[in-house]
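Budget justification aside, the reviewers requested a transparent look at the raw inputs and outputs of the sequence design task funded under Objective 1. We therefore reproduce one unedited record. The lines immediately below are the structure tokens for a 319-residue chain.
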């Protein structure tokens, strides 16, 4: 039987139209940068899933272990029959750990990678026939609104994976403020946040021995070629990731191996040897630091759960 997913396509033209311009702005800036959202074409989403399986990449397995252990507790605090909205839903894997306990009235998956979103929400609808499943392709860095026709008593946003860490703290605060304005009083946010820790653990997590994170980073250049018709040689760049302790963030870069030029949308973009394209920040927080940031954005912390080694934290906040 074909599983039923209600797909809300209204955000798509905006997503497609603005990407080219955004890319060029970053590539012609000094220093050069690209938003990490450009990682997530189909191949990038698959590579990210593979990163999550790497032994060095602790966030996914740690967050999943917390969700598994705390599901009943989380359900008690969050309550049943919510409208559960997963932001950046990707493979919709983590939400499965909560569905039985939370028993939401409906689920909305929101992701920038359309094909991936459709496949994963269809799988979810097939595996949970009692659940009303919706999907919306949207860019979380743009203002959002909830699609019509969602059932449930109260919206609860679920933003796992410490994806919030890929925003700067200023962006994170304004993103959370925008989200709080979309929620009624009593609406909730269940969010995964990666914690500050020993730099050796962090450096290893973004430099896995199998080279999957490197392939994920370099796939950005492949995508520029495939989708944006850029002239660029991905082999002419190398992956670099390191923990910047001062700013409590992992930085990922693509470093040019020699002097070269990339061509994109009629622009010639010069790289000198050793010059880098900054592709991602992944901010790490203390629990108090994150609660303060969320508080400034209109959220009140209600509960949090962490692992024994305090690597990762899941917080429940209310509007
Ligand atoms: C999606 N995001 C939270 C990941 C992170 O850890 O910042 C993306 C990632 N980049 C490299 N490895 C994983």
């Amino acid at each position: 039987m074909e599983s039923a997913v209600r797909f809300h396509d209204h955000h798509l033209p905006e997503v497609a139209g603005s990407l080219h311009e955004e890319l060029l702005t970053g590539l012609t800036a000094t220093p050069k940068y690209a938003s990490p959202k450009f990682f997530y074409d189909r191949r990038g989403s698959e590579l990210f899933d593979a990163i999550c399986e790497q032994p060095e990449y602790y966030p996914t397995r740690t967050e999943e272990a917390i969700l598994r252990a705390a599901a009943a507790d989380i359900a008690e605090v969050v309550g049943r029959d919510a409208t559960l909205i997963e932001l950046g839903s990707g493979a919709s894997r983590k939400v499965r750990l909560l569905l039985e306990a939370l028993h939401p009235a409906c689920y909305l998956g929101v992701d920038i990678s359309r094909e991936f979103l459709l496949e994963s929400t269809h799988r979810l609808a097939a595996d949970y026939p009692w659940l009303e499943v919706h999907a919306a392709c949207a860019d979380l860095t743009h203002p959002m609104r909830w699609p019509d026709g969602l059932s449930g008593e109260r919206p609860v946003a679920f933003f796992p994976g410490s994806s919030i860490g890929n925003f700067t703290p200023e962006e994170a605060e304004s993103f959370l403020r925008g989200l709080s304005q979309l929620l009624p009083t009593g609406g909730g946010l269940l969010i995964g946040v990666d914690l500050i820790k020993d730099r050796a653990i962090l450096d290893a997590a973004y430099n896995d021995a199998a080279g999957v994170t490197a392939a994920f980073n370099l796939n950005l250049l492949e995508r520029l070629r495939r989708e944006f018709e850029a002239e660029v040689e991905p082999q002419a760049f190398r992956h670099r990731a390191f923990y910047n302790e001062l700013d409590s963030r992992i930085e990922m870069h693509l470093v040019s191996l020699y002097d070269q030029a990339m061509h994109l949308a009629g622009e010639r973009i010069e790289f000198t040897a050793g010059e880098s394209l900054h592709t991602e920040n992944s901010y790490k927080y203390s629990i108090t630091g994150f609660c303060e940031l969320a508080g400034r954005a209109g959220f009140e912390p209600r509960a949090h759960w962490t692992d024994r080694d305090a690597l990762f934290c899941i917080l429940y906040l209310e509007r």
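The first strand starts at residue 5 and ends at 8. The mean pLDDT is 94. Computational costs for records of this kind are itemized in the attached budget.
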